[in-house]
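Progress report, Aim 2. The chain analyzed during this reporting quarter is listed below.
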Amino acid sequence: MATWYAQKGSRNIDSVSGGSTSDVWNPAGAVMMVGWSGPDCYTADGALAAIARFNPVGVILYARNVHPEADGFAQTLERIRSAPTAPLLFVDQEGGRVSRLPVLSGQPAPRALADEAAAYGAALEAGRALKAIGIDCNLAPVLDVADTGPMASRSYGGSAERVAALGAATIRGYRDAGVACCAKHFPGLGHASVDPHVAAPVVDLDADTLRQRDLLPFAEAIKAGVDCVMVAHATYTALDSRLATYSRVLIGDVLRGELGFSGVVVTDSLDMAPIIEGVGPGEAAVRAIEAGCDLLCLPHNAQTQQQCFDALGSAVREGRISEERIAESAARIARLRRPADG
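Predicted structure tokens for the chain:
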């Protein structure tokens, strides 16, 4: 067993509904970020059960996980942080309509920000609040260039230059607050006509337009030091016939090669329609890692988490994915941890 994972330990669970444990090695948790739901979704119990089951490197919080009492929420976070494997804590806090934590309900929507100074200030304030409760990484900002369509309300606007400038300022704000952040949804959903929560968008832009318009904000985000990039569940016909999530061309050649990104590549939620109605979560997890993704986002469904855990474990044991490939991603993810003093 590879030393990097043996130190954490891992146990495979036979079924979602409470099967017995075995000593079958499974490194999948090293690349999994999981959420939790259910009747007691605002307590730590569900999160701790997922941690015990999958040994995930990360846990993601949603509004459903916020305890009705502030003290209870603080206790929930402390219990999660005190788990033996000390998972990273993620949140999806963009501002505006995508606001997960009541303490940040007043964070302005990206479109409402007047300029770079306003973007930096909003991110610095939000980042300090996130840092104070122990969040390691915020899955924001959205860098889709969109004046219309499903992403417009989450975007900085329809100008690539504005999105690039305000996005980079936002990233600097979060990083100065001591919180990692994530640019999304690479290589851009500004021209998508359908929300990927509902179906897989097909973007038919030519390669030059994609590079000059949609990739500009991501190039500037990388210069600003963004820690993570989230890949879209969409197909970009000028560059590849596969979903970007499974595309070695987009992840390896474009994101890492052309743009020089060396940080963590995150999938969008593997609970979304393009995955569930496509190859399914388990195969999607394997293909994403094969393509160069580092961290699998599994925020909602315990069954989806189990399918991905089992499929990745089998892929490693059967040689489809090497231990070294998982270790490479684990090393990148480890860099998201910040010193306690920020």
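DSSP finds twelve helices and twelve strands in the chain. The mean pLDDT is 87. These observations will guide the mutagenesis work planned for the next reporting period.
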